[in-house]
């Protein structure tokens, strides 16, 4: 069970959080619902139904106690398009767990299936059709426990729809397929056995560390707070960790094994790209329109958008298949993307740690962020600047939502209605609100 949410007040987080874009209008909720006794950790819209969404939540702010998965439904037969008001939400189904829930993800294959991740290291698969009433159920379709610490993030692959990923505070990223009775397909370890840098990039070969940059990955396995499959290349997955780095892996490249690697060899999975973000990386999201572009939110209160096309181009493909030709495929020989110059100076995007970031599925330049400063904000990510396409200095805030009264932990765009956003917070409320998309 987590002792406290990562990056909350008491860690990083000073400043006024004014960011850029003074005058951006504050959006009030057009609909809200309470989740009494349970603090929201993340919210996800169904990829099949425009009126359905799910919320992962925990009692006592996730410090101790049970978890609850809420499946919410908008009013029947109501339209949420054309600028019309969204009707009130109602609970259609609830599932209870013995430990707090930190994330939820809908299946890309089955309209009624979704998974949740828990503080006890477990993952559960639920079927909403098995419990059509709002009375809580405690019986999942399947229950897996391979992680040894909190499972903080889930990602269902939008391309290889039989796969989902989980990341944990135990320093691992695991790939699963529920179609094979929940068999674990792959484990990527950020590892306590040694540095996760490719062995072809030795510290003596690197330039001096940029001032303010995160330290090089250490021998201690960092918490893996977030993971996300690429929406463009089925074999690429990124994760963000407590050591301040984003790692991108190609699942076609095998991890070393004790037999093949030899005694004393680092068995950590080797990333094809390693990105120093600054601060613990609490959230990341891929751009749905620009392959190789992702956004990060971290404890340094920043929101950044990175262009990794140069590093990832040899590995990018639109279909699953064998490893790419003429690029390194053996662990320890991958491409390392390391910052050797300070990032573009930028003001902070929020007053406290950035807990969640999400690109709009309807506009390539629009990004939402949620923070422990009790606000959610919307950014226009204009102004490409070399490798880092945007930072708070080159992004413009075009909207904000400040109706929550506690930490905002999750923010998510509707997949069907442009500009409709859901957010959840530790105030035990889920809000729907509108954001500009242009």
Describe this structure in words.
The protein is mainly beta and 438 residues long. The protein has a single domain, classed as Methylamine Dehydrogenase, Chain H (7 Propeller), CATH 2.130.10. It is 2% helix and 37% strand. The chain has helices spanning 258-261, 309-312, and strands at 31-34, 38-45, 52-59, 67-74, 89-97, 101-106, 113-118, 123-127, 142-144, 151-156, 164-168, 172-177, 183-189, 224-229, 236-241, 245-250, 273-276, 281-286, 293-298, 303-307, 354-359, 366-371, 376-380, 396-401, 408-413, 420-425, 429-434. A hairpin with a 6-residue loop joins strand 14 (224-229) and strand 15.
| Average pLDDT over all residues | 79
Structural class: mainly beta
Rg, Cα atoms, Å: 20 Å
User: What is the 3D shape?
Assistant: globular
* Distance between the amino and carboxyl termini: 41 Å
Strand content bin: 35-45%
**CATH topology value:** Methylamine Dehydrogenase, Chain H
Output the CATH homologous superfamily.
Answer: YVTN repeat-like/Quinoprotein amine dehydrogenase
How many domains in all? 1
The ordered string of helix (H) and strand (E) elements is: EEEEEEEEEEEEEEEEHEEEEHEEEEEEE
Low-confidence stretches: 1-5, 9-23, 77-85, 192-215, 258-266, 326-346, 383-388
- Please name the CATH architecture: 7 Propeller
Main sheet summary: 4 strands, antiparallel
- The CATH class is Mainly Beta
Tally the beta strands. 27
Output the number of helix runs: 2
Helix content: under 10%
